Amino acid sequence: MQARLRACRGVLVDSNILLDIATNDPGWGDWSARALAETAEHAALIINPIIYAEVSIGYTTIEALDAVLPPALYRREPLPWEAGFLAGKSFLLYRKRGGLRTSPLPDFYIGAHAAIEHLALLTRDQARYRSYFSTIEILAPTKRKT
Questions:
Q1: Which of 4, 106, 111, 112 sits a CA distance of 20 to 30 A from 53?
Q2: Residues 25, 19: contact at Cβ < 8 Å?
Q3: DSSP 67-112
């Protein structure tokens, strides 16, 4: 893994990984916990406001959420303006390919952030990221769980 991350400034941790762990998801919790621990050994873990917002749904206070996502473990980075632009362009491509959503999905912002800031992305939901952000290093399961 260290070789895969050499060119990356850190690893953006997708909310699905964090939610799998927080909810002890029976299908993905163990994989996500192992992948996060291994990633933390080799790179800085990063979240952005989109990821923070998605994970916050399961918590009633900021303090409870911050206890799960401590700044000492997860570096918090803002979404760069350039990532907003790239997210919009990627969403436009999604629409041209027949996508039905009328506004950009969080994955577009997350993928664009990783692409603009040269971050790897730890996710288990790799299809959209691979389709719209081919330059990012994606850390994901090699086989879909059944």
A1: 4
A2: yes
A3: HHS-TTTEEE-PPPHHHHHHHHHHHHHHHHTT---SS--HHHHHHH
pTM: predicted TM-score of the whole model, two decimal places: 0.93
CA distance 1 to 115: 19
Residue 47 β-bridge partners: 76
**H or E segment at 4?**
helix 2-5
* Cα–Cα nearest to 141, from 47, 30, 6, 45: 30
Cα(131)–Cα(49) distance, integer angstroms: 23
Residue 25 has φ and ψ, to the nearest 5°, of -55, 125
What CATH number has the domain spanning 2-139? 3.40.50.1010
The domain ranges of the chain are 2-139
pLDDT digits 0-9 by tens, 40-96: 999 999 999 999 999 999 999 999 999 999 999 999 999 999 999 999 999 999 999
- pLDDT at 118 exceeding the cut of 80: yes
CA distances from 31 to 85, 110, 124 (A): 33, 21, 9
Tokens of 34: 């192992």
Question: Which tokens hold the place of 48?
Answer: 């952005």
